[in-house]
Hints:
This is C4-dicarboxylate ABC transporter substrate-binding protein. About 45% of the residues lie in helices and about 15% in strands. The termini are far apart. It is built from 14 helices and eleven strands. By secondary structure, the protein is α/β, with parallel strands linked by helices. It has helices at about 5-20, 40-55, 75-85, 115-125, 125-140, 165, 175-185, 200-205, 215-220, 245-250, 255-285, 300-310, 315-320, 320-330, and strands at about 30-35, 60-65, 90, 140-150, 150-155, 170-175, 190, 210, 230, 235-245, 290-295. α7 (about 175-185) crosses α12. The model is unreliable at about 1-25 (pLDDT under 50). The strands form three sheets. It has a five-stranded mixed sheet, with helices on both faces. Strands 8-5-9-11 form a four-stranded mixed sheet. It has a two-stranded parallel ribbon with strand order 6-7. Bound molecules: D-malate. D-malate binds next to β10.
Amino acid sequence: xxxxxxxxxxxxxxxxxxxxxxxxxxxxxxxxxxxxxxxxxxxxxxxxxxxxxxxxxxxxxxxxxxxxxxxxxxxxxxxxxxxxxxxxxxxxxxxxxxxxxxxxxxxxxxxxxxxxxxxxxxxxxxxxxxxxxxxxxxxxxxxxxxxxxxxxxxxxxxxxxxxxxxxxxxxxxxxxxxxxxxxxxxxxxxxxxxxxxxxxxxxxxxxxxxxxxxxxxxxxxxxxxxxxxxxxxxxxxxxxxxxxxxxxxxxxxxxxxxxxxxxxxxxxxxxxxxxxxxxxxxxxxxxxxxxxxxxxxxxxxxxxxxxxxxxxxxxxxxxxxxxxxxxxxxxxxxxxx
Length: 337
Ligand code: MLT
């Protein structure tokens, strides 16, 4: 046996013995896929999480983010995490729904009406139940919640303030049935497209528009290829940090707890981040030449069409109308039926 081989064998034996006596797991650098770019709310949550993780583990564990969908489309990263080939992913909840339909309750149009609603739902028993559902259905565990804000419609063609204005526009949506049906309720057939292909789709005018929150529009530089913004508030975008359940279960109980606590800290900081920056981001989009319009009549036409047509279609997939009613009453709204 060569000297180098002998040293390696001895080192491996010594670390194995140390692990047996102390139960210690070697330092881990979690690989974190991020759908959005630098400056996004997702990146903010990633940074808060990594900071907390490093602090709580005494510097033993850290994470590395791969921004802008470098590790694949958001929906692909759920599959990767499920089989344990990816540690973590930060992505929009609408891209988790196809794998765990009950989380769709957060994507139903006009259910969540404020950041405070989003905080109450995600950080309470409903958030806990949905976390357990994603473990069961999709093999991923939600560690933290990013609050990114209301999804605003953008397009390159014309100002949109009414449902009539929308007609004729080709709008990209995520591959999410609830969002597809919402646009159908407004009279158009949207184009489902992966998030990682959306900028190019807008740039080449394969699609005229899309919807996402201000911070995402800004981080993804959509102002370079989109002119008009409509302040639709049909979905409040919630964007979880998920960890592969297989990876999570390989950790010691102590490390699992560190991840959970770091996720809670990142969640609280994400809400503050949105409160601090959203108004500023809106101003910077205006300064970059975007035109921002409010929908006519406080959005009443959009709200009526979407809630009447879309909610009943998804009662079964979200776990029954009672589930929606629990969500509505949790945020102080009247139940349906
Ligand atoms: C989407 O539109 O697919 C997502 O909202 C993108 C994102 O994660 O920001």
